[in-house]
Amino acid sequence: MGATIRGVFPVLPTPFAPDGAPDRAAFLRLADFALEAGVDGVVFPGMASEVETLTAAERADMVAALGAHLDGRTTFVVGASHADPAEAAARAREGQAAGAVAAMIMAPPGCGQDVAKHVAFYRAFAEAAPGIVIMLQNAPAPNGAGLPPEAVAAVAAEVPAIRYVKEETLPCGQHVTRILAAATGLDGVMGGAGARFVLDELARGACGTMPALEIADAHVALWRAWQRGDRAEARRIYTLTLPLLAQQMTFRVRATKEVLRRRGLLEHTSARATGPKLDAGDMIEIGELLATAAPALTMHPPA
To answer: pTM score > 0.70 for this model?
Structure first.
């Protein structure tokens, strides 16, 4: 289990059918959109997948279906976070069996700011899942512990299986700089936080970004512009898409699913996650923000 993780890796959402069950067919169509957009890899499940609402059976079924569908066509990172490191290892092994090259793991909030507790958690995971590459997900409270960058580097130094970090605590750009300065031996630091700070992260040495899926084509275009040194084009795309991403920060997966619906990529937008729901005014605003972002979208123009 291992591969270079670099570029645009959207976290796939979980579509739900009208009866409330995960919609596997719709899910695989979203995976196809990611492939068509030219992403460098995909992540599933993560917070943007409503992972906390999925049963173990649902999670395993969707991971297996995704792996079989991808069939090696792009890099797959499995989300395997669980408060119990043995359970996290089981989820990681499910991903490994489906073709995942790494497991993204977030230590439970109960570890707090105690570096020793984080080290113990990741060591227990690594012992239960030998050979699996770990991407340490550092997310802010209440979902994660929000470790300071130097603490992230200290944990990684004690657990050789940790090869990557997904950094999502604010200020993200500064934290990318500080992790890279403090860490030795990491293969890369990925940006998160919905790509709202992606240019700052890339300028500071991030090896890519892990946003939500709804504008993956724009994020691929931004990444490719950045890679060829066209900073002006990357900035243009960022400027067009940032207002939409700012609204997504509030409504999270519900905004993601509504944008996917308006792009003709998703039929049902039901969500299990808690959090604010879109009202009539929000629906109007999404239309305006999507129209602003439209010149940056390279496929599936919004209806």
So the answer is: yes
